[in-house]
Amino acid sequence: MQLYNTLSAEERAELIDQAGKQRLTLSFYAYAKIENPQQFRDDLFLAWNKLDALGRTYIAKEGINAQMSVPAENFEAFRETLEAYDFMKNIRLNVAVEHDDHSFLKLTVKVRNKIVADGLNDETFDVTNIGVHLKANEFNQILEDPNTIVVDFRNHYESEIGHFKGAITPDVETFRESLPIINEQLKDFKEDKNLVMYCTGGIRCEKASAYFKHQGFKNVFQLEGGIINYAKQIKEENLESKFIGKNFVFDHRLGERITNDIVSQCHQCGKPCDNHTNCENEGCHLLFIQCDQCKLAMENCCSSECQEIIHLSLVDQVKLRRGIKNGNMIFRKGKSDKLLFKHSGELSDVTLAKAIDTKDIRQKIKTKKVLIGKAEHYYVKSEIGSFLIENKELKIGDKVLISGPTTGDQQLVLEKIFVNGKEDSEAKIGDKITFHIPFRVRLSDKLYKIIA
Asked: Does 364 have pLDDT greater than 70?
């Protein structure tokens, strides 16, 4: 009985590519009393693993919170695994606006104390006494009411790239930080104002609305299904979007576009940009916004210091990451004195630029590169990558792109190559080619030749 992953993310990505089937990214949650979370977790893992479902799920005695990637052909079967439980009958599945077959590459189902880290003692208030759910049209209408205060209950790095016009956007890194801040900020408006709240998929507002009603707020409302469901409804009903920009998501995509408005800046040069990335230095991994030009110039790093580190040998990089102090610096969420154009807290509703149609971008990319082969191995100590040539040929001086879900897009020029174990100047179909690569290569990575 398999209750845990047996494949790496890279191996899973390779299988997804080989299958060539569309996958749907979705999320859902449900508050319910679960007597045996561990057994519930194991049952779901077994059922979902059979359906090739991937994603991140948290289970607690208070309910379930999940973000998933499911083969489109298995969507209804996946729904049936949920509706087998009474508390998930007719559950709303928030299907993403934009899809990526690699949004999740592992099936992770964890038992936790809470499905959202809110820092609240649920025994001190009625968690079922929640705010009024509003559909997209109702939400738009209440935003027009001058008696309304709208609050974004997401984190600063989420709201920076997109938010509802006029919303209060707390400068916080966690949901639990925002609750006392908003309670203090709005303490004088408990009786006469509409407290309207939203988050990504609705789960944070379920708990927040009950908390604020307990704190004495009389008119509490929440966006049903969060931004994800709002985007779906405004499209189906042809409504005006009061949300501007991108909706940050917690998977490989890091965001899905709701409108073409770009409301944030590249943290390094200040150009209009709303593309999040993680610093290439694995000892930093800072989440920040970076434009394409800075990505090339800085090699996907947040600072010149990190740029120097990624050119060290992998062995030396690992040494730098050792120790609790250094380890605590990893996975920081978008704040650093190196980021000159980082904004949080009070955000502007001004559109800095308009995004280009992503379909056009994909078409342009296709004309600039051609698939040559796939990765077979990476030798860490010597920093040598091995590839099988499956199409066309490569020669000294060619500019290549190595691309993968974890590696990202990395370009380099071939200065020296070995073909079938011997130094040569050209490789053809069927050849095995090795060359120096200063970054880790995964089995799911593809090798492209840049042709323009």
From this structure: no
Pairing of strands 162-164, 426-427: unpaired
- DSSP labels, 265-293: B-TTT--B---EEE-S-TTT--EEE--HH
Q: Find, among 416, 398, 408, 395, the residue nearest to 441 by Cα.
A: 408
Catalytic residues: 199
Question: How do residues 155-203 score in pLDDT, each as one tens digit?
Answer: 999 999 999 999 999 999 899 999 999 999 999 999 889 999 999 999 9
Mean pLDDT of 309-329: 76
pLDDT exceeding 90 applies to what percent of the chain?
A: 68
What is the Cα 202 distance to its own chain's centre? 17
Within 13 Å and on the Cβ side, how many CA atoms surround 203? 23
Taking alpha carbons only, the member of 181, 137, 174 closest to residue 155 is 174
* Contact (Cβ atoms closer than 8 angstroms) between residue 310 and residue 317: yes
CATH code of the region 18-111? 3.30.70.100
Contact 205, 197 (CB under 8 A): yes
CA dihedral (9, 15, 18, 22) positive or negative: negative
CA distances to 146, 428, 451 from 126, rounded to whole Å, are 29, 69, 62
Backbone angles phi, psi at 40, to 5 degrees: -60, -40
- Tokens standing for 13? 């990505």
Residues 6+ apart with CB under 8 A from 43: none
Domain 132-237, CATH number (from 3.40.250.10, 3.30.160.140, 3.30.70.2120, 1.20.1600.10): 3.40.250.10
Question: Which whole number is the average pLDDT over 360-371?
Answer: 52
Residue 19 tokens read as 């299958």
CATH number of 368-451: 2.40.30.10
Annotated domain spans of the chain = 18-111, 132-237, 260-354, 368-451
DSSP string, 315-383: HHHHHHH-SHHHHTTTT--S--TT-TT---SS------EEPPPHHHHHHHHHTTEEEEEEEEEEETTTT
For the chain, percent of residues with pLDDT exceeding 70: 94
Average pLDDT of the residues of the chain: 90
Residues 237 and 158: beta-carbon distance below 8 Å: no
